[in-house]
Amino acid sequence: MKEAVDLLTKRLNGRAPRLALVLGSGLGGLVDEVTDAVRIPYSELPGFPQSGVTGHAGTLVAGDLAGRPVIVLAGRAHYYEHGDPAAMRPALEVLAGIGITSLILTNAAGSLKAEMPPGSVMLIEDHINFSGASPLIGEGTDRRFVGMSEAYDVDLRTALEKAAEKAGMTLHKGVYMWFAGPNFETPAEIRMARTMGADAVGMSTVPEVILARFLGLRVAACSVITNLAAGMAAGELSHEETKDMAPVGGEKLARMLRRFFTEGLADV
């Protein structure tokens, strides 16, 4: 980690961002709005994971977004790629090591609510770790017993709600359920998820939330809805649909994040 922290600190050339974004499938377009940008492929950062999923660039971008310093991780590694829920731990440890204090995660997800159709954005209020895996398995200290009662920071969530209101967009709120993937869920699993209180389902984010809380970072997360979940619409689900629909909600998410930065809400 020290090697990666030293390398990144040198490349930042005096920048001192306190907030980082992780962009999910099909949401990488936001990095094009980062100005005065330094782009570093994950392959050049020791310990950073390599993603083999189309729609995940695997690049760290540091610069200014709407006039505020930020680091953007364009792409992530997934549990279903490596069988390792801690695949993103080195990257998040490096972010914490250079002084990042707040993390906003994004993902593409399936909706369990007809009133939250594809193209919507959902602010995650809580999650259900249905996979049962934890990125802290094997951690040898008592730090592994991380409290998750307030995993998603209230102040960050409030700031994002205000940003959505100022951007004139509807921001749904709900519970995200993490399935291991990479296969999509069955209609029976979706009925179960709805009964258990989930509003959206996906294959990422939850391990990063656990790791971020372990590292002492404040966390917020948003899902871009790319499809109605299995059994709710005709036809089979596909990753192509995810990639095609992510930019639709991604444009709304980008509009909200611009407001989040320009209105000073990122300073909470």
From TrEMBL:
Top class in the EC scheme: transferase
Pathway this chain belongs to: Purine metabolism; purine nucleoside salvage
Xref: InterPro entries: Nucleoside_phosphorylase_d (IPR000845), Nucleoside_phosphorylase_sf (IPR035994), PUNP (IPR011269), Purine_phosphorylase (IPR011268)
Coiled coil: none
Domain Nucleoside phosphorylase: 19-261
Swiss-Prot/TrEMBL keywords: Glycosyltransferase, Transferase
Example of a GO MF term: purine-nucleoside phosphorylase activity
Superkingdom field: Bacteria
Pfam families, per database record: PNP_UDP_1
Entry EC number(s): 2.4.2.1
UniProt keyword Transferase present: yes
UniProt keyword annotation of Glycosyltransferase present: yes
NCBIfam families: PNPH-PUNA-XAPA, PRK08202.1, PUNP
Function, in words: The purine nucleoside phosphorylases catalyze the phosphorolytic breakdown of the N-glycosidic bond in the beta-(deoxy)ribonucleoside molecules, with the formation of the corresponding free purine bases and pentose-1-phosphate.
Family note: Belongs to the PNP/MTAP phosphorylase family.
Subunit (UniProt): Homotrimer.
Name the record gives this protein: Purine nucleoside phosphorylase
Gene source species: Chelativorans salis
Taxonomic lineage from the root: Bacteria, Pseudomonadati, Pseudomonadota, Alphaproteobacteria, Hyphomicrobiales
